[in-house]
């Protein structure tokens, strides 16, 4: 079930950070066990330095290769996950083509030492930096020693025969395997969105839905129907069923949407921010011959969602 939010640490720009810092460098998308091992290196035995996560934004591959890099956790979603790990601020390093041209030496001198005033830098064993990713952890340690910066390197983690990675989490979500994705993260996968006006067809069918406007940088799971928990305005969690994807029966040409129907509860949600925690993938998208058959199928989805969520509460 959705837990109560905790106080959040600040999201800071470079000109507003608290220094000196003990840095964990990386994107830390998904905050899996390997990420948490790196972060622990930046919080333990660092004296008076401020434990800080520093991440490039946007992702370097977006700038250099035009790739779309959707995030499991957007920066503001990540704040309340970092605080229990001992981090006291999250800093986004603005990445552009000029930044990409920095040599490893310039990156350490200008960014880590002058701007971030790092006394400790923690990275994963596969960390690369500098123009063309030419710098590795050995060079980082060498340059750190030159500047009096302690560099700590966390080994990669393996689960069975596979490396624990953000890619594995995304792959599980793409398949609708929420249990596997959540096993790899410290916190169940969630998405947030503001309720915007829809066509009102769900209400006409007897299944009113809240249509969510979700940040376009958010990684979404497999399209289909889910049992889920919903929290709104600090209340909940409420049981719900979610449809993620297009509407093949109603309007096949319409773009994908995120629609949530609260089970056995009526609330005015327009304009409010909803947090949705998908619990189980129920079925793929289907096209029905008419709206009556669609309504009947939604009823079956709702009943299945009730059973799934009730088993969670009882269990």
Structural overview:
With 315 residues, the chain is an alpha/beta fold. It folds into two domains: 11-159, Rossmann fold (3-Layer(aba) Sandwich), CATH 3.40.50.620; 190-314, Elongation Factor Tu (Ef-tu), domain 3 (Beta Barrel), CATH 2.40.30. It contains ten helices and 14 strands. The chain has helices at 33-41, 60-65, 75-82, 97-100, 104-115, 137-147, 166-174, 178-184, 201-204, 291-314; strands at residues 11-12, 21-25, 50-57, 89-94, 118-124, 150-154, 158-159, 162-163, 191-196, 210-213, 224-232, 235-245, 257-262, 273-283. Strands 1-4-3-2-5-6 form a six-stranded parallel sheet, sandwiched between helices. A hairpin with a 2-residue loop joins strand 11 and strand 12 (235-245). Helix 5 (104-115) packs across helix 6 and helix 7 (166-174) runs antiparallel to helix 8. Mean pLDDT is 90; it is low at 1-7. GO terms for molecular function: ATP binding; FMN adenylyltransferase activity; riboflavin kinase activity.
What secondary-structure arrangement, pairings included, does this model have?
Blueprint: E1 11-12, E2 21-25, H1 33-41, E3 50-57, H2 60-65, H3 75-82, E4 89-94, H4 97-100, H5 104-115, E5 118-124, H6 137-147, E6 150-154, E7 158-159, E8 162-163, H7 166-174, H8 178-184, E9 191-196, H9 201-204, E10 210-213, E11 224-232, E12 235-245, E13 257-262, E14 273-283, H10 291-314
Parallel strand pairs: 1-4, 2-3, 2-5, 3-4, 5-6
Antiparallel strand pairs: 7-8, 9-10, 9-14, 10-13, 11-12, 11-14, 12-13
Helix pairs in contact: 5-6, 7-8
